[in-house]
Predict the 3D structure of the following.
Amino acid sequence: MGSVGAKEVPQLLNEAGRRIDGRGLEDLRALKIEAGILNRADGSAYVEWGDNKVMAAVYGPREVHPRHLQQNTKAIVQCRYNMAAFSVDERKRPGLDRRSQEISKVISEAFESVLFVEEYPRTSIDVYIEVLQANAGTRCAGIVAASVALADAGIPMVDLIPAVAVGKIAGKIALDLKKEEDNYGEADLPMALVPRSGRLVLLQMEGHMSRPELEQALDLGVKGCLKIYEVQKEALRARYAVRSTEAPEVAA
Amino acid sequence: MGSVGAKEVPQLLNEAGRRIDGRGLEDLRALKIEAGILNRADGSAYVEWGDNKVMAAVYGPREVHPRHLQQNTKAIVQCRYNMAAFSVDERKRPGLDRRSQEISKVISEAFESVLFVEEYPRTSIDVYIEVLQANAGTRCAGIVAASVALADAGIPMVDLIPAVAVGKIAGKIALDLKKEEDNYGEADLPMALVPRSGRLVLLQMEGHMSRPELEQALDLGVKGCLKIYEVQKEALRARYAVRSTEAPEVAA
Amino acid sequence: MGSVGAKEVPQLLNEAGRRIDGRGLEDLRALKIEAGILNRADGSAYVEWGDNKVMAAVYGPREVHPRHLQQNTKAIVQCRYNMAAFSVDERKRPGLDRRSQEISKVISEAFESVLFVEEYPRTSIDVYIEVLQANAGTRCAGIVAASVALADAGIPMVDLIPAVAVGKIAGKIALDLKKEEDNYGEADLPMALVPRSGRLVLLQMEGHMSRPELEQALDLGVKGCLKIYEVQKEALRARYAVRSTEAPEVAA
Amino acid sequence: MSDEVTAEILTTHVLDLAKKGRRLDGRGVDEMRPVKIRTGFVASADGSAFVELGPTKVLAGIKLEPGTPFPDTPNAGVLTTNAELVPLSSPGFEPGPPRPEAIELSRVVDRAIRAAEAIDLTKLCVTPGEKAWVCYVDIHILDDGGNLIDAAMLAAMSALTHATLPGERFGLGEDKPLEVRHLPIETTFARLGDALVVDPVSEEESACQGRLTIATDEAGNVCAMQKGKVGAFSPQDVLQMADRAQVHGDRLRDQIRAL
Amino acid sequence: MSDEVTAEILTTHVLDLAKKGRRLDGRGVDEMRPVKIRTGFVASADGSAFVELGPTKVLAGIKLEPGTPFPDTPNAGVLTTNAELVPLSSPGFEPGPPRPEAIELSRVVDRAIRAAEAIDLTKLCVTPGEKAWVCYVDIHILDDGGNLIDAAMLAAMSALTHATLPGERFGLGEDKPLEVRHLPIETTFARLGDALVVDPVSEEESACQGRLTIATDEAGNVCAMQKGKVGAFSPQDVLQMADRAQVHGDRLRDQIRAL
Amino acid sequence: MSDEVTAEILTTHVLDLAKKGRRLDGRGVDEMRPVKIRTGFVASADGSAFVELGPTKVLAGIKLEPGTPFPDTPNAGVLTTNAELVPLSSPGFEPGPPRPEAIELSRVVDRAIRAAEAIDLTKLCVTPGEKAWVCYVDIHILDDGGNLIDAAMLAAMSALTHATLPGERFGLGEDKPLEVRHLPIETTFARLGDALVVDPVSEEESACQGRLTIATDEAGNVCAMQKGKVGAFSPQDVLQMADRAQVHGDRLRDQIRAL
């Protein structure tokens, strides 16, 4: 989208309807999720998704810092999305820029929509997302990882929330854009779904979509999320399997 | 005053003793004050004065943030004078620069001099001034607006405080400088008066004035303030008139 | 040390084994210490050491700001090492850069190692060091001054801590480097000693030293510290002498 | 009574009203508050608009100054949008860096202007790679009566639509109107139970179970969306709101063009 | 006893003394504390002065470096004044951005130097629009015994008066004395009831009902004024203090010139 | 039980163990935790290494970009090291400017690389005084299991040793390996009573009476030292640790070179 005045636009879709990495319009990039990869955090997960590498950690429910943010009737959810300086082509200055702060806000709101915050008044549930290598779709990868990390931390949720971006390339609605598609495509629409209710807790969009395209994009995104949901659950099953093997040792 | 190394100085006073906008040395620019123009604020006022446009809002007395600034024996008065990015010829970076912070300080002290702060211990009276369009004399315009906003908020004061700058152009003492006069004049002396006591609660000056000129300037400034005082009172009368018309409706 | 790509290296040691200012390898620069030079501070000292001029002040034990840093079982020691903008050849931007923050940290830890912090729970002992003129060795000069200022403030310590840097110039271990020696030398090793225990509470090093050179450097540094220790004690004796002369007057 | 208790009672009240198809200020579910726009308010700006959306008051000012293009877009000018919740606007002001709400506001307005390609930035290039116009859109929120995003966007687009490229001031040719190619409008909805109300007031924003902003253009495209606040929407909700946003957008575009 | 109670008792005491024409340290109403000035204190600076005003201690250092003139004054050098209340100086230090008192101090000193045209900035231009000297005046407050403005101004003007333009260090000609055209001095007064006392100590500044600083030059002009603190002055008060400031200023100018 | 009480009990336990020559995790006094290094972890970086030192996890990424040499070293490239204790790594994270621990960590790693002359910065100069490579070493602490300095240094040197100078991306010649001249390694010790234990875990760092980090190079030199934490060391302690640091350093250098 941000390609005003840029020089050459690559061919994003070939004659056979294949994308630059060979995928069809409705295909996801390869996705790998591992839960419980950090020792200090209460819950954690690592996601490799196409060329994205993202780590998430959860701390809490715990005391609120700074104290004046504390709420008497519920937990607050504080998400911090951050990109490593070396995660992108041109080195990014360390620290939270305005983009990161906006993303942190909408992800915080997405998770607060599925956490039972009233159960933990006066506490904070802190969700940290570090993008180690970025290739479009990092906020969705962050949500996917953080969902699993929250489950790994044992924090009750309505549901895990899968997330994916749908876009428009060469006039067609396509699932899960990679970097070149995001840079030279016509629209980008990231979303996060609560599978149990069929409702969206995160939704952003920029570009151009007609009303029928928007309908098609939402539909494709929901389908994509449901596939991702399965991978998330599988990662948690693998994690619990390890834990239950470990358990006897600890008990012995 | 800040015209070191500048190229051409305009003629600030013609043969007939008229200033570039046709005023005589003791004339004020046109002044219009409207009270109660904002909904959320406890009190507010809007001032158009020559080519200045300034808005003021008052909140309080209310809890002090941050808490450690609270005083047990009196209210604190916190003024924040700010210029909009687009209020000046060359865009100003948003945020409080050192000039704005200094002006905020002296205005805070001016108002604390006329407010009954001992009546409201442990609270803050917050005065916010936004300069939307600037043409010399904005701190005085801000004080004029804020005075009316404080009265509109129903906060008891010794008196309203009118304010005006006196300057020196082409060797003569002149009232209420506009931008070119301020830029190319020889002195600028902003002041704020308590009409009831005849004393000054704000006084600054830079430039060159001999002892007799200083006396003349103070004298002219006091006269100017007394004219402005009438416009302030008129704005409040108009405001109370509206309110008293409204009152029966509310009571009915 | 920081001389990558620099043009010409001066001759740091002549044929007679003399350094650029005529000193031998084991000689200190001239050192003058005056205690009690400030009125407001609880304790203070001024040090001239070669071309260094450093002032130190101590406040405390007193209430901790900000409050959340307070510790229930001991005093915290907060040192702030700062260089004046005009203290170096090229003007330094005012404010604490990362170097100053690191030095502040290691000095804080050095003093906490000799103060009876358990005696003053929930308080802060604040040590301020201002470098007014800098010529290599300012952190050591700051420690020397701050030690005396702490004693002047009457805060009990295990011992005064003298400090000095040892370095390597033209392949030889040398005591108390001055600026050119520091810039073009091969190593710099600042240390602070507790004479009573023979132990080091501050130790840093950068450059190149073989194992035998390191041993020689530590040995030379300890000897240098013991000389400085005498000057510190003399400064305090002079201070107490003034005080005891003053005392009768006060009592009268 | 504590603030939290007051807030809870108000939330319940707003949601109860919504169940009966009613709103706090008596409006219909799809009824916006009246919009007043006054352009040319600030003489020191190259374009400006004072917008009232019911009690909400917003002032936008445009400044155009020569600068350097970004290295990756050497043939384009630069657009910078900044919204400030100045402390006049509500009792909630705190000193310090801008809060997430203010950052989101700036970015959502900026994104819609940019995504709709409202300004052809290549027209703002003076010398490729060297000199280009920087277009600053500064938005002052003066009185917060709710739905700041829509009010800020109306102010920004009204100010841009009536702005001047000040060539003479910088020796870069004659003054001429800034060219606005498309006119995106943002429309915000809040979910209150099953109701999706347009143009929420502050109390509705606090009570809502999800807020959605949709930017449309005059060609019938959706150009930007932003879900905010805790809560969720079904895809059907989104499509319904997109249709309604288009209607509101078209009406407001007419109003701006008629100024 | 709380700090506030202590402060109140001290204020009452100071005001009671003033009624009888007396002051805390026994001085007369128009009597300044002794001024000691030592120039050339800092070898790394291009000019410096250590000033003691009674127990108040201030160190000013001048640095001159080549830089770029401001676009609107292409023929002039740049003057930058910065005063720091370093934490040695009093128990009131707090980390963080400079507080309003420190900002006011810097600006009041800067304004007087500038308004009096103490330095002819056009003489600091090297190549118009391209290169000019930047003159940094950095002031360290080391011991706060009250009346920092006057002490800081004395330090700044003493340091400037004995500063060197370091041409050789930057390949810009020979070293030569920095030319000081005028010698403004600031004199500060505090109102204690009906008394207007010169050169207030800290306790008098806390107790006062208005503080006024007046800068004069050697030609008998007032060049700058700054009212500070809560309180008020009649125009007659101001004129009386202007006369007294001129006398003190002339005396201190002689002292600086005699260094 | 308060945090402070818990900490005190743990400290006593750690020190009691040390008296008997034992450690919390069963290691010997001179035994390091196992080191796993994976280079090339981040494709967007010009060099990277993911290092595990027991449970401690650190990721370093190298970026090389053209920039301007410093005026006082016109013939040299620029090295910049930055370590971030990202909030994933431990419960102690607080928003705001980096804390002294993080600053010390960055500077200690930076100093060792620089003092050992690991990179010949003159080889990174492109055009003297005008263009030179800037080498950014960014270190992310991901999981804090203690002894961050050694882990960060291992990650930095592993990433540098396997980094590429990306000439092609910037039109500055062919890509080629970044030349690493020396391979400094840092080894950290903690004093627990009379014991000097290598590679302390977090609890040992909290309990210790002094921490010393020693960087050695392959020629048997000590290149950098940093004493941290409250506590003290005798010169004999320092020499003993220097000998031990050399042994550990040589072993880890072999491990990095064998990657």
